[in-house]
Design brief:
- The chain contains one helix and twelve strands; from the N terminus they run αββββββββββββ.
- It is mainly β.
- It has one domain: Jelly Rolls, CATH 2.60.120.10.
- It has a five-stranded antiparallel beta sheet with strand order 3-4-11-6-9, with no helix packed on it.
- The protein is globular and about 45 Å long.
Length: 161
Protein backbone atom coordinates (compact mmCIF):
# COMPACT_ATOMS: atom_id res chain seq x y z
CA UNK A 1 0.00 0.00 0.00
CA UNK A 2 1.36 3.41 -0.97
CA UNK A 3 1.69 6.11 1.70
CA UNK A 4 -1.12 8.17 0.08
CA UNK A 5 -3.45 5.12 0.10
CA UNK A 6 -2.65 4.49 3.77
CA UNK A 7 -3.35 8.16 4.65
CA UNK A 8 -6.67 8.01 2.79
CA UNK A 9 -7.67 4.84 4.65
CA UNK A 10 -6.89 6.42 8.03
CA UNK A 11 -8.84 9.56 7.04
CA UNK A 12 -11.90 7.50 6.00
CA UNK A 13 -11.87 5.45 9.21
CA UNK A 14 -11.67 8.59 11.36
CA UNK A 15 -14.25 10.45 9.23
CA UNK A 16 -16.77 7.61 9.25
CA UNK A 17 -16.42 7.19 13.00
CA UNK A 18 -17.44 10.82 13.70
CA UNK A 19 -20.19 11.27 11.11
CA UNK A 20 -22.66 9.17 13.12
CA UNK A 21 -25.44 8.64 10.58
CA UNK A 22 -28.42 7.00 12.25
CA UNK A 23 -31.92 5.95 11.29
CA UNK A 24 -33.05 9.40 12.48
CA UNK A 25 -30.58 11.25 10.26
CA UNK A 26 -27.32 12.96 11.05
CA UNK A 27 -26.35 13.73 14.60
CA UNK A 28 -26.61 17.41 15.39
CA UNK A 29 -23.39 17.06 17.40
CA UNK A 30 -20.98 16.02 14.63
CA UNK A 31 -19.98 17.07 11.14
CA UNK A 32 -21.90 15.23 8.43
CA UNK A 33 -23.51 15.52 5.01
CA UNK A 34 -26.69 14.36 3.32
CA UNK A 35 -27.10 14.58 -0.43
CA UNK A 36 -30.48 15.08 -2.08
CA UNK A 37 -30.33 11.67 -3.77
CA UNK A 38 -29.73 9.82 -0.49
CA UNK A 39 -32.65 11.30 1.46
CA UNK A 40 -34.83 8.53 2.88
CA UNK A 41 -38.54 9.39 2.67
CA UNK A 42 -41.03 7.58 4.91
CA UNK A 43 -44.74 7.73 5.68
CA UNK A 44 -45.58 9.66 8.84
CA UNK A 45 -48.70 8.46 10.73
CA UNK A 46 -49.88 12.02 11.49
CA UNK A 47 -49.89 12.96 7.76
CA UNK A 48 -52.23 11.84 4.99
CA UNK A 49 -50.91 8.53 3.59
CA UNK A 50 -49.53 10.09 0.37
CA UNK A 51 -47.30 12.59 2.23
CA UNK A 52 -43.74 11.73 3.22
CA UNK A 53 -41.27 12.86 5.89
CA UNK A 54 -37.48 12.62 5.93
CA UNK A 55 -35.51 13.12 9.12
CA UNK A 56 -32.27 14.86 8.19
CA UNK A 57 -30.73 16.00 11.47
CA UNK A 58 -31.38 15.09 15.09
CA UNK A 59 -34.20 13.07 16.55
CA UNK A 60 -37.57 14.88 16.51
CA UNK A 61 -38.77 12.73 19.43
CA UNK A 62 -36.14 14.26 21.73
CA UNK A 63 -35.77 17.76 23.21
CA UNK A 64 -33.09 18.77 20.71
CA UNK A 65 -32.72 20.66 17.46
CA UNK A 66 -33.93 18.77 14.41
CA UNK A 67 -34.35 19.26 10.67
CA UNK A 68 -36.93 17.35 8.65
CA UNK A 69 -38.27 17.61 5.13
CA UNK A 70 -41.90 17.17 4.23
CA UNK A 71 -43.03 16.15 0.74
CA UNK A 72 -46.70 16.51 -0.14
CA UNK A 73 -48.05 15.45 -3.55
CA UNK A 74 -50.43 17.57 -5.60
CA UNK A 75 -53.95 17.86 -4.25
CA UNK A 76 -53.22 16.68 -0.70
CA UNK A 77 -54.55 18.82 2.16
CA UNK A 78 -53.30 18.81 5.72
CA UNK A 79 -56.31 19.96 7.67
CA UNK A 80 -56.03 22.52 10.50
CA UNK A 81 -53.51 21.46 13.13
CA UNK A 82 -50.97 22.86 15.58
CA UNK A 83 -47.42 22.01 16.52
CA UNK A 84 -46.23 22.55 20.08
CA UNK A 85 -42.79 23.71 18.94
CA UNK A 86 -41.79 26.92 17.14
CA UNK A 87 -40.94 26.09 13.52
CA UNK A 88 -39.07 27.60 10.62
CA UNK A 89 -40.18 26.38 7.20
CA UNK A 90 -37.96 26.76 4.12
CA UNK A 91 -39.59 25.99 0.79
CA UNK A 92 -37.27 23.67 -1.14
CA UNK A 93 -39.40 23.02 -4.24
CA UNK A 94 -42.91 23.59 -5.54
CA UNK A 95 -45.23 26.18 -4.10
CA UNK A 96 -46.11 25.87 -0.41
CA UNK A 97 -49.65 27.03 0.39
CA UNK A 98 -50.30 27.67 4.09
CA UNK A 99 -53.21 29.34 5.84
CA UNK A 100 -53.64 30.39 9.45
CA UNK A 101 -56.81 29.45 11.32
CA UNK A 102 -58.79 26.67 12.95
CA UNK A 103 -60.98 25.97 9.89
CA UNK A 104 -59.77 25.13 6.40
CA UNK A 105 -60.42 28.18 4.20
CA UNK A 106 -58.85 28.28 0.73
CA UNK A 107 -59.21 32.08 0.71
CA UNK A 108 -56.73 32.28 3.66
CA UNK A 109 -54.01 30.34 1.86
CA UNK A 110 -50.85 32.22 0.92
CA UNK A 111 -48.47 30.90 -1.72
CA UNK A 112 -44.75 30.71 -0.98
CA UNK A 113 -42.34 29.85 -3.82
CA UNK A 114 -39.00 28.01 -3.46
CA UNK A 115 -36.53 29.84 -1.25
CA UNK A 116 -39.22 31.38 0.95
CA UNK A 117 -38.83 31.17 4.72
CA UNK A 118 -41.88 31.09 7.00
CA UNK A 119 -41.73 31.44 10.79
CA UNK A 120 -44.56 29.62 12.56
CA UNK A 121 -44.74 30.12 16.34
CA UNK A 122 -45.73 27.06 18.37
CA UNK A 123 -49.44 26.40 18.89
CA UNK A 124 -50.46 28.45 15.83
CA UNK A 125 -53.40 26.69 14.12
CA UNK A 126 -52.72 26.33 10.39
CA UNK A 127 -53.37 24.18 7.33
CA UNK A 128 -51.57 23.30 4.09
CA UNK A 129 -52.68 22.42 0.57
CA UNK A 130 -50.53 21.16 -2.31
CA UNK A 131 -52.74 23.27 -4.50
CA UNK A 132 -50.60 23.63 -7.64
CA UNK A 133 -48.41 20.54 -7.48
CA UNK A 134 -46.06 18.69 -5.17
CA UNK A 135 -44.09 20.75 -2.67
CA UNK A 136 -41.15 20.02 -0.40
CA UNK A 137 -40.51 22.07 2.72
CA UNK A 138 -37.71 21.85 5.23
CA UNK A 139 -38.66 22.30 8.87
CA UNK A 140 -36.13 23.42 11.46
CA UNK A 141 -37.23 23.28 15.09
CA UNK A 142 -36.42 22.09 18.58
CA UNK A 143 -38.21 18.90 19.60
CA UNK A 144 -39.99 17.03 20.61
CA UNK A 145 -42.10 17.29 17.48
CA UNK A 146 -45.77 17.68 18.32
CA UNK A 147 -48.78 17.70 16.04
CA UNK A 148 -52.42 17.87 17.03
CA UNK A 149 -55.37 18.33 14.70
CA UNK A 150 -58.01 20.89 15.64
CA UNK A 151 -60.72 18.38 14.69
CA UNK A 152 -59.67 14.88 15.85
CA UNK A 153 -61.62 13.40 12.92
CA UNK A 154 -59.10 15.03 10.53
CA UNK A 155 -56.18 13.22 12.16
CA UNK A 156 -55.02 10.34 9.91
CA UNK A 157 -54.01 8.43 13.05
CA UNK A 158 -57.71 8.21 13.94
CA UNK A 159 -58.79 6.78 10.56
CA UNK A 160 -59.86 3.16 10.30
CA UNK A 161 -57.22 0.98 8.70
Amino acid sequence: MKRSDHSLTIFLVVFLSVVNVSAQGLSNKNFGTIYQETIKWSPFPAFPPQARLAILVGDPKKPEAYVVRVKVPEGVILMPHKHTEDRIYTVISGVFYIGIGTKFDAAKLKAYPPGSVIVLPGNTPHFHWARSGEYVTQVTARGPLGIGYINPLDDPRNKEK
